[in-house]
Structures are given as structure tokens and as C-alpha cells.
């Protein structure tokens, strides 16, 4: 099966909407990317984030189940380590000061087991950044009107908080985005930039209950991050 989620694919990321999403996600990641010694990108694909982050950290590993995605990554940056396999079943010896999982959380059906493994791989003072879809937002409430819509089984933010707490993880920062009210068929419309400006002007990123997507940074409960 052809890997369609590559940064060069015009249907998915190489368009105005894709560039808008990448900018928001990458800015948030960099804001949390402090004192990183090593990093694991979970379901990192062909290196959409791993490659640019390699200028800030020279010890990055990407794990993904898709061999074509990893081949693309290795052809672009041979210094990034790769692991082919299912994150939930592959044994990983190392601990990491930064873990990342962007636009892939819905691939893991058992959130408790997923966060438990994240905790086991995270350094005591490390950070984990992930993206969560908000099923309580205006966009996903509107989707319920479509009987043919695909249900990804996303958890609400309160359910995510509870799952994190059960696995001794605590939220450090949340930021909302992706208020673009356009169908994917208009991913290259000039209106993408217009709505991105409106999102910024009206501080919609702070309206977490209605933000369609949420960028979340977490640390271990016993981390001293909050005391700094």
C-alpha cells in the first residue's frame, strides 16, 4: 500500500492546510523541546517532525509500522534511527527525554496501555507531546449529523486526563487549534490563511472545550518541572 501521509503528498500535507497544521504543531513541539538528549517519535512516519527536529537533537529514533514510510525517512536522513513495528508490542530498552506522537493517537485503541508504555519509556524529567482530537468540539458534534461519518473512537479531554492520571502522567500545557471550517477538498484554498488569522486574532487556541484538535504536553507526576 502506498504511503500517502508524506510531507510531499499534495493530497495530504503539501498544501495550504497541511502547512498550516505543520506550523502549529511544530511551534508547539519546539516550545516543549527543552534539554532534549534523545527522542522517540511514535508512529513518526517518513520523518515529518523527526527530520527538522534533528537540527536540535542528534539522537532521534522513529518507530512506525509502515516500511515504506521508514524507507523514505532513511533516504532523507540516514542519521535518524528507525524501528519497524507496532509500538505496543516492540520491546524498547532505552528511556527518552522527549516522546512525540502527532496525528496518530487514534491508532491505539487501548489508551491506558498506551500511556502506561509512554510512562515506562519517559525519563523522570522528560516530556511527552501528543495530539488529541476533541470529540466534544463544534466540528465533531456537527459530524454526528452525517450518518456515514467514520468514528475514530476518540476520548474527550477529561477522559484523557483520567487515563493520564491512572498512568502517573500529568498535563503541563494544552493548546487548541484547527478551527478551519473547510472540507478537505478545499485544502489548498486561500481561505485557509484567512481562517488561520481569525483563529489567532480571537485567541481560539485558548478555547479548549471547542478546539477541534488539542496539542498536549505531559510529564511524570513526580517531575520537578512544576517547581522550576
TrEMBL record:
Keywords: Membrane, Methyltransferase, Transferase, Transmembrane, Transmembrane helix. The keyword S-adenosyl-L-methionine does not apply. Gene3D superfamilies: Vaccinia Virus protein VP39. Residues 40-130 form the Methyltransferase type domain. It holds the Pfam family Methyltransf_11. The chain crosses the membrane at residues 176-198. CDD domains: AdoMet_MTases. The keyword Transmembrane applies. GO terms for molecular function: S-adenosylmethionine-dependent methyltransferase activity. One of its GO terms (biological process) is methylation. InterPro entries: Methyltransf_11 (IPR013216), SAM-dependent_MTases_sf (IPR029063). This is Methyltransferase domain-containing protein.
Amino acid at each position: 500500500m502506498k504511503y500517502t501521509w508524506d510531507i510531499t503528498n499534495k493530497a495530504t500535507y503539501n498544501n495550504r492546510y497541511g502547512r498550516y497544521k505543520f506550523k502549529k504543531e511544530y511551534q508547539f513541539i519546539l516550545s516543549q523541546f527543552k534539554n532534549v538528549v534523545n527522542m522517540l517519535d511514535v508512529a513518526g512516519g517518513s520523518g515529518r517532525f523527526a527530520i527538522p527536529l534533528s537540527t536540535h537533537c542528534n539522537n532521534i529514533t522513529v518507530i512506525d509500522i509502515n516500511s515504506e514510510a521508514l524507507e523514505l525517512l532513511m533516504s532523507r536522513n540516514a542519521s535518524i534511527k528507525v524501528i519497524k513495528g507496532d509500538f505496543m508490542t516492540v520491546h524498547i530498552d532505552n528511556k527518552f527525554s522527549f516522546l512525540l506522537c502527532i496525528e496518530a493517537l487514534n491508532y491505539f485503541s487501548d489508551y491506558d496501555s498506551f500511556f502506561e508504555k509512554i510512562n515506562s519509556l519517559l525519563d523522570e524529567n522528560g516530556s511527552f507531546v501528543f495530539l488529541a482530537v476533541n470529540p466534544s468540539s463544534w466540528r465533531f458534534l456537527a459530524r454526528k449529523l452525517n450518518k456515514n461519518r467514520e468514528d475514530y473512537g476518540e476520548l474527550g479531554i477529561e477522559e484523557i486526563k483520567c487515563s493520564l492520571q491512572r498512568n502517573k502522567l500529568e498535563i503541563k500545557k494544552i493548546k487548541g487549534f484547527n478551527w478551519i471550517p473547510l472540507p478537505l477538498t478545499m485544502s489548498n484554498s486561500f481561505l485557509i490563511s484567512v481562517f488561520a488569522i481569525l483563529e489567532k486574532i480571537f485567541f481560539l487556541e485558548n478555547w479548549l472545550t471547542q478546539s477541534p484538535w488539542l496539542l498536549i504536553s505531559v510529564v511524570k507526576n513526580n517531575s520537578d518541572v512544576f517547581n522550576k
